[in-house]
Amino acid sequence: MSQLADVMISQLANVMMSQCDDEPISQLAD
Fold first, then answer.
1. DSSP-derived secondary structure letter, 30
2. What is the pLDDT of residues 14-28, one digit of tens each?
């Protein structure tokens, strides 16, 4: 089950990263 959650989380992170690509990621990480 943890493996499935890992995949879902990584996929969700990929989508969020691609959507926030226009904005400076350093600001979000700060």
1. -
2. 888 777 566 666 665
Compute the distance between CA of residue 19 and CA of residue 9 in angstroms, rounded to an integer: 15
Task: Using DSSP, state whether 19 is helix, strand or coil.
Answer: helix
Report the Cα 21 to chain-centroid distance in Å. Answer: 11
How much is the pTM? 0.48
Taken as a whole, the chain contains a residue count of 30
- The two tokens of residue 26 are 């350093």
> Would the pLDDT of 9 be above 60?
yes
Domain positions in the chain are 1-30
Q: How far apart are CA 15 and CA 19, in angstroms?
A: 6
